[in-house]
Amino acid sequence: MLDLTGKNALVTGIANNKSIAWGIAQQLHAAGANIGVTYLPDDKGRFEKKVGELVAPLNPSLFLPCNVQDDAQVDQVFETIQKDWGKLDILIHCLAFANREDLTGDFSDTSRDGFNTALDISAYSLTRLARGAKTVMTEGGAIVTLTYLGGVKVIPNYNVMGVAKSALEMSVRYLAADLGPSNIRVNAISAGPIRTLASSAVGGILDMIHHVEATAPLRRTVTQKEVGNAAAFLCSDLSSGITGQVLYVDSGYEIMGM
Ligand code: NAD
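Above: the input record for the complex with nicotinamide-adenine-dinucleotide. Below: its predicted structure, written as C-alpha cells.
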C-alpha cells in the first residue's frame, strides 16, 4: 500500500497547472504527504501569486521562494524546514532552464554563458539541494529528479539541455552513493515529452510528441499524473531497495530501436 502519511515532502518546480511538479505534488498529497512548495521568485511577484493560488487546495504548510542559483535562498529553505518541520522525508527536484536560443539550431553554437547557465540550473542545483536536504533528512529520505532521454541519446534541438541531463543523471548516481549510508535514496524519472512551459522552449516539441505517439509501444505520450504516480512510488517504502536509478516513464519509447 502506497502510504506517505507523516512524510514531509518539498516540491520544487511548479510554475503552472501544466508543470510536471504539479502532477507530482498532487499525487504525493493524495498519498497523504504533508506538502511544502518552493517557487521561482520574480520582481513583480507573479509566480508567487500564481503558484500560491494553484497549490492552495493542497494546503502546503511551507511556501517559500527558491531560485536555485541563489545560495542564500537555498539555505533559507532548509533552515525553515528545520525550524517548522523538524525533518524532511522527500525532495522533488523538478526544474531546468536553458536559454531559448540554445534549444534550437546547432549544438556547436552554444555559448559558454549558455552552457554554464543550463548546467548550473538544470544539473548542479540537484547537488546543491541534496546537500541541504541531507542536513534535515535525519530519518532517511527520498530524492527524485526529472530527466529526459535527450541526456542519453541525441534528440534534435535538445542540445545543451541534453548535456545538462547527462550530468544530472550521473549526479544521481554519485549522490546515491554518497547519501545511501544515511538511508537517503536518490533516483531520477525520465519522462516522455509533455507540453509545458519549459518544453515549449525546445524547438519542435510538438514533433517530438507526435513521434512518440506514433512509435512508442503504448502509442501515446505520458501525463503529469503518470509521472506523479511514479514519483510517489519512488518516494515510498515500496521502492525501499531502489537507489541511483533512472526510471523511464515514457510509454516505453526508450526501448525502441526503429
Ligand atoms: P515547467 O516549466 O513547468 O517547470 C520548470 C520549472 O523550473 C519552473 O517551475 C521554473 O520556475 C523552474 N526554474 C527555472 N529556473 C529556475 C531557478 N533558477 N530556480 C528555481 N526554479 C527554476 O516545465 P516541466 O516540463 O514541468 O519541467 C520540469 C522538469 O521536468 C525539468 O527538469 C524538465 O527538464 C523535466 N522534463 C520535462 C519533460 C517535458 O517534456 N516537459 C520531459 C522530461 C523531463
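Notes for the reader.
Residues 13-15, 18-21, 40, 66-69, 94-97, 121, 146-148, 191, 193-194, 196-199 surround nicotinamide-adenine-dinucleotide (CB under 6 Å).
Helices lie at 20-30, 46-55, 71-84, 112-136, 159-179, 205-215, 224-235.
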